[in-house]
Amino acid sequence: MGIDPLPSSVWYQDMADFAERISDAAVGHRLARAIQGRGAFRRFKNELHEEYPHLLPAWHAFRDVRSRRRAVKWLVDNSLIDHETGERVMVGHPNPDLP
């Protein structure tokens, strides 16, 4: 059984959701603007590293939890773990609070 990669739109949505959920509206707006058009991933990364390095731990936590949750969903959908186990993992890995 192969594992198909997720389309870039999934990872793009993570960046958009992160920008939308940051409590500082000005920072969220700058991050949202950074992901418009070609080169969105590079600009988002550069914006975080250069302008908001204090948000990097929050971004990594957010991205990692989303990735784990997608992996668990895939495991359940492909009957590699049962639904109850998947639910326990999901409950134990909620989306982190963002600054």
Whole-number tally of structural domains: 1
- The count of β-strands is 0
Instruction: Give the quaternary arrangement of the chains.
Output: single chain
- Overall 3D shape: globular
User: Structural class of the helix and strand makeup?
Assistant: mainly alpha
Q: What is the element string, with H for helices and E for strands? A: HHHHH
How far apart are the first and last residues' alpha carbons, in Å?
40 Å
Number of discrete helical segments: 5
The radius of gyration computed from the alpha-carbon positions, rounded to a whole number of angstroms, is: 15 Å
Weakly predicted, low-confidence segments: none
Helix content: 55-70%
Mean of residue pLDDT values = 94
Summarize the structure.
Helix 1 crosses helix 4 and helix 4 (56-77) runs antiparallel to helix 5.
Tag the structure with descriptive keywords.
globular; 5 helices; 69% helix; single chain; mainly alpha; 99 residues
How are the secondary structure elements laid out?
Layout: H1 8-21, H2 25-34, H3 40-51, H4 56-77, H5 83-92
Helix pairs in contact: 1-2, 1-4, 2-3, 4-5
Task: Explain this structure.
With 99 residues, the chain is mainly α. The chain has one domain. It has helices spanning 8-21, 25-34, 40-51, 56-77, 83-92. The longest helix has 22 residues, at 56-77. The N and C termini lie far apart (40 Å). The mean pLDDT is 94.
